[in-house]
Amino acid sequence: MAAMAAIEPVLEVLLKIGITSPEAESLMRGLFVHRARDSLASQAGGVAPTDVRLALVTGVHRNFVRRILSEPPVISSEREGRAYLPGRVLRGWQTDPLYRDEGGKPRDIPEEGPAPSFAALTAEYLSGRSASTVLQELIRSGAVQSLEAHRVRLRSRAARRPGLNLESVTVYGLQARALLATLTARLCDPQAAAFLEVTPVFGIAADRMPLIRDVVARRAGTFLTGLEHELSRESKGSRGRKVRFSLSVVELAGPVRARRRKGEGSS
Amino acid sequence: MANAHASLSDVAARQRLGSELIGVCLAALQPYGVDGAAVLKSVAATRAAAAQAPFARGLFRDTFWLGELATEWTENRSYLDQQGKPKVLPIQGEEPSFEALVQKYFGPGRVPQILELASRTLVIERVEGGRVAQVNACVMLNGQPLLLLARAILCVRGLLAATQSNALGAEKPSGMSPDRLACSYVPKDAFGEFAALMREQIHGLVDQGNRWLSEHTVRDRPAEADRKGGVMGVHAYVFSD
Question: Least CA distance to A108: which residue of chain B?
Fold first, then answer.
């Protein structure tokens, strides 16, 4: 039951992108065997386990173990998206003081008119392109939102193709893997160095949630920006062996499941 | 500094610090064209009244309530859009409107004056169709020496009140005013980088304080707020001396 809770969101994505159950099982099996090999090798000081041992641990026949290990289980990174031109406009919106409020956050701007406006922003950062075309593309991608009175709002730091596609699912997979790695480390060893703090669950009035989300986004954004500055300096200055480090602030959202009362059976 | 401190009696040290405080204030007033000698003379005559800074309070009153207005615009659900951001408001009309906010915080008949003040202090910008959009939730006084000076006087009072509380008053840790300082000698051309680093952090900190204060503030009768409670707040700034 506990493992299902972790896997369910992944299955949801696999369903949406049209992966069948046999395909999902095959993918999972491949990942499972690769992960088991890495884990056992790590425990043995880098010595790779034999196929027989892997078969014993994973329950997969040793002939299949060899075949599975002969190819990588992940999507090749060769197909990463090319530079996205409207991204320059987004970067300008986030970094140009003229387009930020006093808190340093990108501000809502009118579509037309002198700076600060979207037309002026496009002329500055994507000269020669039609502001209305760029705007249409950014609205379509979900990076920009159209507001009343011909004003626009920046919604995300980067423009990505909307919906489920190779790029978005790859990002999803990497983030899910990183989050689960931390959760797993803490689950296996409560003293693990990886940091994990969660607030208690609060009951918030539904109509207050947009405001609360905005406050959390502002506050967490500020926190992460500050740490980004410090970690960036740390990263440039340090020598010797390095480890990958990143920090996420995640809203734990989802329907609240009612607690089962005593005496109620399961179906 | 340690030697200087050791060589003076406690009373003499306090007198000397008092003189330095007045000296620092007078020196800081010089760029505003203030005559130090005349100030000292008038303070001697009206010391008790001047200590309450009534003129600075009066000058700053509209700015203060404009800040409260902007806070309500960012907190009250009827003034927010679906993303929790302040709505574009019609200037005239019933709530939610700019007029309704002005009525609440400034009383009747002051819409044109507050519109002008809010535009000048970068709280709002006018948009098509007789409407206004919020640009900043805080009142920006850059380039307005008189208002900035009035605010500085009130902030100095706040800082000295916190100092007095920590030095002479509070016995329990819960009664102390948190007061932290970070400073060091740094090349002057690094100030821009430091200010940029701290700007967002300070904004976040003040935003958090502001949300708590707005939940507890006495806002039904602005003109008499002083009688109902004391001014509490947090003031954060970056400096290069």
Answer: B135
